[in-house]
Amino acid sequence: MEYLNYVYEKIFGANFPTDVTQGVSHTPRKVICFGNVLMDRLLKLEDPELLLRYGLELGSKGELDMEKLNRLAMEASERSQCRTNPGGSALNTARILKQLGTDSLFFGAVGADKQAEELRQIFRELGIDARLQTVDSAHTGQCVCLIYKDNPTLYANIGASAQFAVQTLSHAVSHEGQTFLRPVDRKQILYVEGFFVPHRGEVCDYIVQHLVRERRRLALNLSAPYIIRENPNAILKLARLAFFLFGNRQEFEALAEVARYKNVDELAEQLLQAGGPKIILVTNGSAGVQVITNYVEELANPGPLIFEDFRAPRVEGLVDATGAGDAFVAGFLHAWLEKRSLCECVRMASDVAVKVLTQVGCNLP
Predict the structure, then answer these.
(1) For residue 188, which of 165, 218, 208, 168 has the smallest C-alpha distance?
(2) Would you put residue 70 in left (φ > 0), alpha (ψ -120 to 50) or beta?
(3) Which residues of 273-302 are buried (b: 16+ CB within 10 A; e: fewer)?
(4) In this structure, are strands 289-293 and 306-310 parallel, antiparallel, or unpaired?
(5) In contact, 154 and 88? CB cutoff 8 Å
(6) Mind listing the pLDDT tens digit for each residue in 129-161?
(7) pLDDT tens across 326-355, in order?
């Protein structure tokens, strides 16, 4: 181990470019999140004129260069009050998990800038355990969320997040006294957001080759149709290996399309026949949730293929749909780790998502 640390110091310098926001936890977290670190700027629009002028479809998601993103945010802030939050899909899930009582560990990358310092301070205040790689040559990622008639349009520039290095993760795995992995015979979830997959194939490969095994399981969020269409092979590879697969109906339809299956049902059947137990969760707004699974119980062999539909809870006072899917994941994983039944996990996930719908941004009341 001393030799390995010596090698890291020679390659990366004595101070490896990762800071531990909450200090080193001696108890491995049950959920490890990998995602983009973003400073979210949320603005409500009175009309869609700004979206039309920038050629942005209402309700769409995508990426913009930083100059255009800042210009968009500046114009929007002239019309509406701007609210800032720590953002990014997996980071949203980590924040909601913390509020529900499940501590997680978050891995990501930030720039050497003011936004990174603000985020570190927020993490400390919220008690979020984060290991952040600092990238001197890039800015901290940002996201602008424009809300019109309760429908969020999200565009981001992930900045430093795209440069999260596999060495950051491998160093954390091997560095004595900083292990974050539970024994393979105990439950632990390695959660990857789809937005994290582009540019970080080496990191994703390391996760599935070196970290995922036995009861240490992979969870994947599909995140957005454009991510699937632009990274079909990488997303399909992770989808086949994931124990938990989350996404909305549009995302699963995009996955079926790139995998050349007729529909989501056929896609799910093929994914479930490819290996061991798997739980697929397809959210569809007010239409509810469909669970497709061959899971029977812990450590049991796969069972028969089951399709089950769950009604969505009624929403009282819809405010903003931003992050509802991230909250759904948090609610489900929290319940799963409490050893709830699959039905109870889905119901809790739906209830948590509904609570977030009544708030601005991905926040619980």
Answers:
(1) 218
(2) alpha
(3) eeeebbbbbbbeeeeebbbbbbbeeeeeee
(4) antiparallel
(5) no
(6) 999 999 999 999 999 999 888 788 999 999 999
(7) 999 999 999 999 999 999 999 999 999 999
DSSP string, 37-65: -EEEEEEE-SSSHHHHHTT--TT-EEE--
84 pLDDT higher than 90: no
Pairwise CA distance, residues 359 & 106, whole Å: 23
Do the beta carbons of residue 244 and residue 276 sit within 8 Å?
Answer: no
The type of residue at 117 is E
Confidence of residue 15 (pLDDT cuts 50, 70, 90): very low
Q: Mean pLDDT throughout 179-191?
A: 92
Please give the full DSSP string across 201-264, using - where no structure is assigned. HHHHHHIIIII-BTTEEEEEE---HHHHHHSHHHHHHHHHH-SEEEEEHHHHHHHHHHTT-SSH
Only one residue has tokens 């990358």, namely 109
Beta strands in the chain (DSSP E): 18-20, 31-34, 38-44, 61-63, 83-87, 104-111, 129-135, 140-148, 151-159, 188-193, 216-221, 244-248, 279-283, 289-293, 306-310
Only one residue has tokens 């309700």, namely: 59
Closest CA to 184 of 213, 218, 219, 209: 213
CA–CA distance, 212 with 175 (Å, rounded to integer): 19
Predicted pLDDT at 10: 37
Q: Which of 123, 85, 127 is nearest to 102 (CA)?
A: 127
Give bridge partners of residue 1 from the DSSP assignment.
none
DSSP lists the bridge partners of residue 235 as: none
Q: Give the integer Cα–Cα distance in Å for 294 and 280.
A: 9
Enter the DSSP assignment of 113.
S
